[in-house]
Here is the input.
Amino acid sequence: MKIPSKLKIGGHTYKVVFKEMEEDCGKADRYKGEIWIDEKLMQSEKEATLIHEILHILNGGLSEATVDGLSCQLHQVLTDNLLK
Here is the structure.
């Protein structure tokens, strides 16, 4: 899957930035309108991390464990069925 440089989520445009990250694989900054993804990750991990951060933006009340599970499962469904 080609990761776009910008995404529109909930009526807001977010810039997708790849950069070296020390602790997390990704982070969403609603104030800057950016999603950061660790550039060192494998492509499939970058894709799953993007989905993870989108879920955080869509519903900030979800627990980290819930978002982790949903992002991995959703990535698998998309990869196996839509992104071939």
